[in-house]
Amino acid sequence: MVALHMPITYLGRLLQIVCLVFALLPGTALGKERNLPSLEGDWILIGYHMNNGKRFIEVPVNEPAPGDKPERWRFRKDGTFLHLMDEKLGFSGNYSIVPMDIPLQQASTLREGNSFLVVTTDVVVTIPGMAERKVEYFHGIQKDDRIVLFYLGNSTNPNNPPTQGHTFRKSWKGGWTW
To answer: Based on the number of CB atoms within 10 Å of its own CB, is 150 exposed (0-12), middle (13-18) or buried (19 or more)?
Structure first.
């Protein structure tokens, strides 16, 4: 039994690596055209996509009261970003977008959306004493003026897949406005 378990574990891990390599290949390498989304601009939190045990459901947030600062992202043309969680916690660094098919259950959050992987590097945290993060990943899906981002951590294949995604709407007024 032990002798059989080792090759199966090895083959399973090899299959994961092969799938990741194919997911990271440009879509044209697989015979299909891929359109990478343009995330440039400001994105404001409007809801969450939460796994209720069967599927992801959308849970909206209330419009912020005057003075409230909802979670938001600013993706810049030069490949840098700001991610502000609230008035005390924020992140900044570099980002890139890689074509990637995300798990079907997550992809169902925005049907017929364009899936991708956001790779953030050299991530600085605004809280003193917190270490710089070399790399972090987010599964993403975009449709029209909305994106859903699922935080993966420092691996594209986390042990525990995310059970919640944050839904953002592109700011049509510019800046951090709702």
So the answer is: buried
What string of DSSP letters covers 2-47? HHHHHHHHHHHHHHHHHHHHHHHS-GGGGTS--------EEEEEEE
* Closest of 99, 102, 113, 174 to residue 146, by C-alpha: 113
Tell me the per-residue pLDDT of 142-167, one tens digit each, with 9 for 90 and over: 988 999 999 999 999 888 889 899 99
Q: Is 47 exposed, middle or buried (0-12, 13-18, 19+ CB in 10 A)?
A: middle
Q: For the CA atoms of 20, 115, 53, 21, what is the dihedral angle to 10 degrees? A: 0
Q: Who's near 152: CB < 8 A, 6+ residues apart?
A: 136, 137, 138, 139, 158, 162
**Mind giving me the DSSP string for 54-103?**
SSEEEEEPPPPPTT----EEEE-TTSEEEEESSSS-EEEEEEEEEE-PPP
Across the strands, what pairs with 58?
49
| Digit-coded pLDDT (tens) for 64-112 | 667 678 899 999 999 999 999 988 899 999 999 999 887 777 767 777 8
**Residue (of 135, 149, 124) closest to 43 by Cα position:** 149
